[in-house]
Amino acid sequence: xxxxxxxxxxxxxxxxxxxxxxxxxxxxxxxxxxxxxxxxxxxxxxxxxxxxxxxxxxxxxxxxxxxxxxxxxxxxxxxxxxxxxxxxxxxxxxxxxxxxxxxxxxxxxxxxxxxxxxxxxxxxxxxxxxxxxxxxxxxxxxxxxxxxxxxxxxxxxxxxxxxxxxxxxxxxxxxxxxxxxxxxxxxxxxxxxxxxxxxxxxxxxxxxxxxxxxxxxxxxxxxxxxxxxxxxxxxxxxxx
Length: 240
Description:
This protein is an alpha/beta fold and 240 residues long. Helix content is 39%, strand content 20%. The relative contact order is 0.13.
């Protein structure tokens, strides 16, 4: 069977045995918990290793802005983390980062607290809030070196959800699939209003598949205007 090590090797991501063991334990915990809580539609370990673990970690070898987070005091927020993707795999691979996991469903965060404790991860904080509400908290707003998200939403909505968390000079990195040029075109106004620079787009493919992935990297050039993000639900219902 093709395991986590196999797929990471295919992507030229080298991790110590201890980290591979942590990733495997995390995968096992998610699959087991999924029997009583809806966390993922992917429960086959081989498919999980490829589409969740490796997919979360592709940022390490594809995005130069993120590839140097090791050995540095870097803060990362995973917005709409769900079952912990990409935040938990990134924390395991790069234990030096300070990680915040934000989600609107508290029972997911209770599970992630169990994961963090079981794996012995430190400097991990969970926040129960919708993104629009969390970004109004003074402790979170304009505070992070990186915001990352694999959440399913338009680029316009994701920008409004995530860029407010990023400090000036930091980056919002969205995990997207396939061709995204039209979606990015529709997000231009949102990126400008939220004080983001023109995005950099990096395309890649999951190894041994034709599954295309894209990273949208937006650098923040100024503080978030006070009027954003708008009230919960507005970004999805009425994109900028």
